[in-house]
Amino acid sequence: MTAEAPSLRTRLQTVFAGNRTLFGRACQAFIQALIVLSIVAFTVETLPDLPPDVRSNLHRFEVFVIIVFTIEYLLRLWLSERRLAFIFSFHGLIDLLVILPFYLQLGLDLRSLRILWLFRLFRLFKLVRYVDAAKRIGDAFRLVRVDLAVFGIGALFVFYLAAVGIYFFERDAQPDTFASVFHSFWWALATLTTVGYGDVYPVTVGGKIFTFFTLMIGLGVFAVPTGLITMAIVSTREATLKDDAS
Asked: Is the pTM of this model over 0.70?
């Protein structure tokens, strides 16, 4: 007896798995290249003195890209065992946001809504599905999400204390710049992130000393989550290697 031939659905699932067949890997490479080229085309479109024929060709390429992405989205939706879960998943929402603005503009005059034009940048997030490194980073964030949440609350606490502290030291010397704690939030943000734009800075001795300690704390604010994420990525990588070895 001959083995039963796989159904169309099964064959397509194998193709979308990507790493099982040569044709599947070729399809994934094609989609990745299309994402990158569409971002390049999006960037070229912003040139002010672009010839009309070039702009017309870019529009044709945009239509082609949307058609391919639409077919991909519909196929993934059809192949999904839980279609509603796919629609509201991260990848499902990204795929939908990439193609939806194009179709909305066909029926409505939405050219004034520039946000729809910016939705094309969501194509960059489509690469997450095809890049193994991005998947490992996502796994790492999920691994330390509780620690990051706790640290985030602590960082907000430090951010507020920094704004209150600089307001206390500088409110009399710079009543316009540090008129309230709310006005001091910008200084706290720029200082804790160690950016220091220079547009708002202390002039009193107490304010300068307080700024020094705030800067030291700001270095730690970024060092702690960076260390957490780095350890999580290493742990995820080691787990992947063990799975591959077994």
From this structure: no
